Amino acid sequence: MYTCGYCERVNAVERYQPDPVAENALRGLGDHIVAWRKLHLLTQEQLAQRAGVSRPVVTRLERGEEGVGIGALMRVLVVLGVENDILTALDPYQSRFGRELADRAQVQRVRRPAR
Length: 115
What we know:
Blueprint: H1 5-15, H2 20-39, H3 44-51, H4 55-63, H5 70-80, H6 83-90, H7 96-105
């Protein structure tokens, strides 16, 4: 059965369910980007030019809107000088929870002794 691309996109939109936790996190990320930009005394236009993205992309990031590419996000974070902080924060071995999961994953089976 053939389904047109438009129909698939419409169905995907109908299935979309907002995630309040993710939306809150995106708003928080946007607020932090605004704060970093202002600490650097940059306008949205200046930040966009330095990051090689459009000003609307910076606006969407600062509003915490979905749909901005991860590459654009990283370019902005590089200009703001916080990309390494983000990478460290996401490193599973830098958090207690990540280390606990790694320890559990390394549990090895014990062989029974030969009789």
